[in-house]
Write a structure and sequence with these properties.
Elements (H helix, E strand, L loop, with lengths): L20 H4 L1 H25 L3 H31 L6 H18 L16 H4 L35 E2 L12 E2 L13 H32 E4 L5 H7 L2 E4 L2 E3 L5 E4 L5 E4 L2 E4 L9 E6 L2 E4 L4 E3 L18 E13 L2 E3 L3 E7 L2 E6 L2 E3 L20 E4 L1 E12 L5 E3 L2 E12 L4 E5 L10 E13 L3 E8 L6 E15 L2 E9 L17 E13 L4 E6 L5 E2 L2 E8 L5 E3 L9 E2 L3
Parallel strand pairs: 3-4, 4-7, 5-8, 6-9, 7-10, 8-11, 9-12, 10-12, 11-13, 12-14, 12-15, 13-16, 14-17, 15-18, 16-18, 17-19, 18-20, 19-21, 20-22, 21-23, 22-24, 23-25, 24-26, 25-27, 26-28, 26-29, 27-30, 30-31
Antiparallel strand pairs: 1-2
Pfam families: Glyco_hydro_28
InterPro entries: Glyco_hydro_28, Glycosyl_hydrlase_28, PbH1, Pectin_lyas_fold, Pectin_lyase_fold/virulence
Enzyme class: hydrolase
Length: 575
């Protein structure tokens, strides 16, 4: 009896006889390998989110690479075997194949001469669309024959001896008839006897394409994803990888975690990053990039160990590193938990079109009433903006002992939906250069929809008399609530100095005039010894202010120098 060659098999047909084990199990094995490979890929990509397990993630990554290699190796072996047997059919096999096709045609297909003959039997209306079914015709005439829902036993579909077939679409007329050779193969593709016999060569070509594709995908995957748990691996990851996951990582004392990222890269913190202790200038962390995303998973912590540095003195005490400096363009920073900054939290320098959202900056342990005597935090600013444009800072919480957000220089800055605890308020601090107007200028800023609790100042605007010239123009505060401020509710000082005394009692200067400082809907309270309002302007230094709906309550009288906004009550005095 003639035996069917191995290539007749499909992925769902494993009934092969007298075939080598490799060929017999080829489709089954490929199917299994592909399924396993896809499952491992899914684990590789999602395990850090679904399972939140670094060990499982690392193991899945290794398994994925192993299955890539195994799959490619298996396919290459099979291709090699197939090429060695390219002309594996004997003449007897060829005749057997053709005879079987002919016998099936005679046995199973209706033959019409001048008229067509229908199949009879059950039809699958869901599969074939009601009255329209694929069909085959007889020996030369147009046919109207239809196929029963049960396939031939070997899953082949072919026309009789070379006739025309016209698929039926509902009860209407279909497309023009199409001629089919005798003999065929299922899956809506028909082959003549030459095509059937040569099919293995085509199959091998397809396998070569699959091999190449898998190899390419594995290479891309290996390049684009890196998992970092050792400090010495960071530089290589940032140089070569588009997707970087940072697990539990210890940064040696005196070293900076530098993330100099590829364009479009993503960094995801999924573990705890801890910085070693050393008295140095820092920073602990520096990020560069264009169109990058830096984010954190729930439960991660970036720990600066600030409690080892805090001495009540901030920058006037022992040397302390800044926490994080960012220089980026068209980038997003989100869902990050910064814990215990030694000094200065997030410095946004020379950045453009950037968004910072959903941060938790937690220096609560550095509060004077919490920290051990002589070990409180100071100068632990939350966010600072310098020489940057189109910056958004939003939806974040800051617990600290200096400005919650401070704008030093730049333009088009939006701060919204902030919650500030124990800070020095939502601030402007302008004038850090002796010779750069740009570094001493801030224009077009909106600070809104925020709450300030137990701060030194609720709103603090200060220009430095020990700096060169500059300007503050078109800055608006609106919809701000402050509770329990212990020094000032709203403070504007044009006599500030970058010294430990901060210019107390100094004569104000208009080297950096404040024009268009607008405040709307500012509400709150201050503690008993605090002043609701404290305004010190230089002569002609504060111009075109618009204040409305301002209500900050406290027992102490407020003070105003050279400017008395109509919306507030204060006592005018002269320094």
């Amino acid at each position: 009896m003639w035996k069917k060659p191995w290539y007749y098999a499909t992925l769902n047909n494993y009934n092969r006889e007298n075939v080598s084990p490799l060929k017999t199990n080829f489709c089954r094995t490929i199917n299994v390998i592909i399924k396993i490979h896809l499952h491992i890929q899914a684990i590789y990509i999602h395990s850090h989110i679904v399972m939140r397990s670094i060990i499982i993630y690392s193991l899945a990554a290794r398994m994925c690479k192993f299955w890539c290699v195994l799959t490619i190796g298996f396919l290459l072996i099979n291709v090699s075997n197939g090429n060695q047997n390219k002309n594996f059919l004997s003449e007897e096999d060829k005749r057997g194949a053709i005879n079987e096709i002919d016998s099936k045609s005679k046995r199973d297909l209706p033959i019409a001469s001048g008229s067509s003959k229908r199949y009879y039997g059950d039809y699958d209306s869901n599969r074939y669309g009601g009255s329209g079914y694929p069909h085959t015709s007889g020996l030369g005439n147009y046919g109207d024959d239809r196929r029963p829902s049960t396939y031939y036993e070997d899953d082949y579909h072919h026309s009789g001896g070379g006739g025309y077939s016209r698929p039926s679409y509902g009860s209407g007329y279909g497309p023009p008839p199409v001629y089919h050779h005798g003999g065929g193969y299922e899956d809506d593709h028909y082959y003549n006897e030459h095509q059937v016999i040569q099919r293995p060569a085509t199959m091998n070509n397809n396998l070569l394409v699959i091999c190449s594709l898998l190899l390419f995908l594995c290479t891309v995957q290996a390049r684009n994803q890196c998992f970092v748990t050792k400090f010495e691996d960071v530089a290589n990851a940032t140089k070569n990888c588009q997707n970087i996951l940072v697990g539990n990582l210890t940064v040696p004392a005196g070293k900076t975690l530098v993330l100099d990222l590829l364009p479009g890269a993503t960094v995801n913190f999924i573990g705890n990053v801890t910085f070693g202790f050393e008295n140095w200038v820092g920073p602990l962390m520096r990020v560069y990039g264009n169109n990058v995303t830096v984010q954190g998973e729930d439960g991660h912590i970036i720990n600066g160990q600030g409690e080892l540095y805090w001495d009540d003195l901030g920058s006037w005490g022992t040397l302390k590193p800044k926490f994080m400096i960012v220089q980026a363009n068209a980038s997003v920073f989100k869902n990050l938990h910064l814990y215990h900054a030694p000094m200065h939290g997030v410095a946004i320098n020379n950045s453009h079109n950037v968004v910072f959202t959903n941060f938790l900056i937690d220096n609560a342990a550095g509060a004077e009433n919490v920290a051990p005597l002589g070990h409180a935090g100071h100068n632990t600013d939350g966010f600072g903006v310098n020489m940057s444009t189109n910056v958004v800072i939003k939806d974040s919480r800051v617990y600290n002992q200096d400005d919650c957000v401070v704008l030093n220089s730049g333009s088009n800055i939006h701060v919204t939906n902030m919650l500030c605890y124990g800070s020095h308020g939502l601030s402007l601090s302008v004038g850090f250069s002796n010779d750069s107007v740009a570094r001493n200028s801030l224009t077009n800023a909106l600070i809104e929809n925020s709450t300030i609790i137990d701060a030194m100042d609720g709103i603090h605007v200060k220009t430095h008399i020990d700096a060169g010239v500059g300007e503050v123009t078109n800055v608006t505060y609106r919809n701000i609530v402050m509770l329990g401020s212990y020094k000032f509710g709203i403070s504007v000082e044009q006599n500030y100095t970058n010294t430990k005394s901060a210019g107390k009692g100094a004569i104000p200067l208009n080297n950096i005039p404040i024009t268009g400082l607008n405040m709307y809907n500012i509400k709150g309270t201050v503690q008993n010894k605090a002043q609701p309002y404290y305004i010190v302007c230089a002569q002609d230094g504060c111009l075109d202010w618009d204040w409305d709906d301002i209500s900050v309550y406290g027992e102490k009288e407020s003070s105003c120098v050279n400017l008395h906004p109509d919306a507030i009550s204060c006592t005018d005095y002269v320094l």
